[in-house]
From TrEMBL:
Keyword Ribosomal protein (UniProt): no
TM ranges: 472-500
Protein's name in the database: LRRCT domain-containing protein
Domain of life: Eukaryota
Domain LRRCT residues, every copy: 413-471
Record-linked PANTHER family: FISH-LIPS, ISOFORM E, SLIT RELATED LEUCINE-RICH REPEAT NEURONAL PROTEIN
Lineage of origin: Eukaryota, Metazoa, Ecdysozoa, Arthropoda, Crustacea
Signal peptide: 1-29
Annotated Pfam families: LRR_6, LRR_8
Keywords: Glycoprotein, Leucine-rich repeat, Membrane, Repeat, Signal, Transmembrane, Transmembrane helix
Organism from which the protein derives: Daphnia galeata
Length: 614
């Protein structure tokens, strides 16, 4: 063996080794440099590779092929090389059409993404052979109409995405034969009304229907007729200003409805007249100026409610979340409560809302104090941020009234941090102090004071209780104290007055005694009589000469004191007996006069007795 020969043998060996070593990469010769191929997963990705066409040299057993973000303008026959494909992504290319019969050999294909292309028209034959296809994404193309039987070759289709086109018309038979379709996305098109007739074949299967961002103006009775399995209905961002009372009537499985950003401004009878099983409702961005009582009384299962971005909303009735009109009918709960409503305790049934979002209603500046009455037992999440509340009147509410609440936001309100927010302050303290905030006290986010001036911009939690001007924190006891001290004062005054009057009387009595004793000296004859029943026994004696003389006991006119004391005239004396029945008068001999009037004091009042003297 020559050296040359051995060298040659070694070379062959080396080649063999190279071939052996290179053998795995030998398959990669089918993988263009711009692609990444994984033959164990049977997956190839040629995304973003500036490809003009579908590569034909890839592993024919591929299950997954990514061709997104290329410049593929036409499919031609190339995709038919990959008969084992399950998933094909052709999104973000420049396809104008899917051609005819190109997918025919792809009987296993389940997922086809043609979104973000330039497809402006489709033929039934485009989809021929795709008998296993479950998801078809044709979003963001240039479709303007859906013709009859367009998807007739797709009996397995579950998800059909047609959003972001310019679809204006949907033929009555467009969705015929799509017996398994669960999800139909038609949002962001140019539909002027709900394609009710076209939806009828989907009655037994459809779960989710997206009609958002179209040009729909009215929801007529029976718009969603027969869609008994529909659970989600997206109608947001249309121009809906009218909802007929039976629009949602047959949606017996409806769980979530998005009506946000429309032009609704009246009572929606569809929400009050009949019962809906709905649990999620979004009414944001509509035109209501006020939300009346029983606004949603036909939604006894509502759990999530969003009423945000209401440009014109100024007032909300405290009974807006009540289920039933007192005294009315038409709601399930009412029959249960109507009997008890007649009794003094009115059972108010409210919507069982757990997640309430009422944010960014720029004109809504008053939170009615009864709004959460009854709701508090269910609330888990409450977002009131971005409104115009200067204060939050929770009425009787304290944090303990919200047993399940775990999130509360009142951020971006022009809150005045005064005593009215004490409940919130307490909530924040509670959270601070119980380190185990997880169980119990809710997360209260960003409560920032807008006033009064010294506190503007400060978080409420940074204030002390005294900063909230709660000096009258116990107003009831203060009032009680005030009332009691007032009463004591008044009683004291009364006692004083009585005492003073007694003293005055006593002084006067003693003065009379003095007068009497001074008269005694020259009175001729004492004549005493008993006075019965207010008439003088003297009167009974029959009067001769009439003469009137009045004696007053006050100091000025008292004959004794004034000095005008007529001789013979006497001053009636009065002795207050314990029983107050007998008044003894002492009378001196009178100047011949017919009648006298005796004035005397009796139990603090002045009485006059006409006396006729014989
Ligand atoms: C289709 O591709 C687009 C763009 O890559 C992507 O956003 C979309 O989610 C895909 N569709 C499906 C149904 O996965
Ligand atoms: C309304 O609130 C719900 C629940 O938090 C949320 O999913 C939805 O996006 C909100 N809608 C708007 C318009 O913000
Ligand atoms: C409600 O009252 C109206 C008449 O007032 C009646 O026609 C209707 O049947 C009542 N509905 C229920 C559920 O009782
Ligand atoms: C809290 O809210 C105020 C306005 O109310 C805002 O200025 C501030 O940026 C918010 N902070 C956070 C953390 O969101
Ligand atoms: C707190 O301020 C609000 C808004 O200015 C006011 O309506 C409320 O009466 C105040 N509360 C108290 C207790 O002063
Ligand atoms: C409560 O906690 C926050 C942050 O966790 C803190 O900024 C604030 O000062 C605390 N307040 C009190 C009263 O401790």
């Amino acid at each position: 063996m020559s050296l040359d020969q051995s060298w040659s043998a070694a070379r062959w060996l080396a080649v063999a080794v190279v071939v052996l070593v290179a053998s795995p990469t030998a398959v990669q010769t089918f993988c263009p440099s711009m692609c990444q191929c994984d033959d164990s997963l049977l997956e190839a990705s040629c995304s973003g590779s500036r490809l003009d066409s579908v590569p034909i040299l890839l592993n024919p057993s591929l299950r997954t092929l990514h061709l997104a973000h290329n410049r593929i303008a036409s499919l031609r026959q190339s995709v038919s090389f990959y008969g084992e494909l399950r998933s094909l992504d052709l999104s973000h290319n420049v396809l104008h059409s899917l051609g005819l019969l190109h997918f025919q050999p792809l009987g296993q294909l389940e997922w086809l993404n043609v979104s973000n292309n330039l497809v402006s028209s489709l033929e039934m034959e485009s989809f021929a052979g795709l008998s296993s296809l479950t998801a078809l994404d044709l979003s963001a193309n240039r479709l303007t109409r859906l013709t009859d039987d367009l998807f007739a070759e797709l009996p397995s289709l579950v998800t059909l995405i047609l959003s972001g086109n310019k679809i204006q018309t949907v033929a009555a038979g467009a969705f015929d034969s799509l017996r398994k379709l669960h999800t139909l996305r038609l949002e962001d098109n140019n539909l002027g009304h709900v394609p009710s007739t076209a939806l009828v074949p989907l009655a037994a299967s459809l779960r989710s229907l997206y009609l958002s961002k179209n040009l729909i103006e009215t929801l007529e009775d029976g718009s969603f007729r027969h869609l008994a399995r529909l659970r989600f209905l997206g109608l947001n961002d249309n121009a809906i200003d009218r909802v007929d009372p039976l629009a949602f009537d047959t949606l017996v499985s409806l769980d979530a409805l998005d009506l946000s950003f429309n032009r609704l401004d009246g009572v929606i009878e569809a929400f009050t007249a009949s019962i809906s099983p709905m649990t999620h409702l979004d009414l944001s961005g509509n035109m209501w100026r006020q939300l009346p009582a029983n606004f949603l009384s036909g939604l006894p299962r509502l759990q999530t409610l969003n009423i945000s971005y209401m440009e014109y909303l100024r007032s909300v009735d405290p009974a807006v979340f009540h289920l039933s009109k007192p005294g009315g009918n038409g709601s399930v709960s009412l029959s249960a409560t109507s009997t008890s409503a007649t009794s003094s305790v009115v059972v108010v049934k409210v919507l069982p809302i757990a997640n309430l979002v009422m944010t960014n209603n720029a004109l809504w500046n008053h939170l009615p104090s009864g709004l959460f009455h009854g709701l508090d037992a269910h609330l888990v999440r409450l977002d009131l941020s971005g409104n115009a509340f200067e204060t939050l009147d929770m009425g009787r509410h304290h944090s303990t009234d919200w047993p399940h609440l775990n999130y509360l936001s009142v951020a971006y309100n022009p809150l005045q941090c005064n005593c009215s927010l004490l409940w919130l302050w307490n909530m924040l303290q509670q959270r601070n102090h119980s380190s185990a905030a997880v169980n119990g006290s809710p997360v209260v986010v960003n409560v920032t004071c807008s006033g009064p001036p010294p506190y503007s911009g400060l978080p409420l939690s940074s204030l002390n209780q005294s900063d909230l001007f709660c000096s009258l924190a116990l107003p009831v006891s203060i009032i009680v104290l005030l009332v009691i001290s007032w009463l004591v004062l008044v009683a004291g005054l009364v006692v004083l007055v009585i005492y003073w009057r007694r003293r005055r009387n006593a002084r006067r009595e003693s003065r009379l005694m003095i007068i009497k004793s001074s008269h005694h000296q020259y009175h001729h004859r004492d004549h005493s009589f008993q006075h019965h029943n207010g008439t003088s026994p003297i009167l009974g004696g029959g009067g001769g000469v009439k003469h009137q003389q009045q004696y007053r006991m006050d100091s000025n006119n008292s004959p004794a004191l004034s000095g005008h004391h007529h001789v013979g005239a006497t001053i009636p004396q009065y002795y207050q007996h314990q029983n107050n029945l007998h008044h003894h008068f002492q009378q001196a001999q009178l100047v011949p006069s017919a009648r006298d009037e005796y004035t005397y004091h009796c139990a603090g009042t002045i009485k006059r007795i006409p006396v006729t003297v014989v």
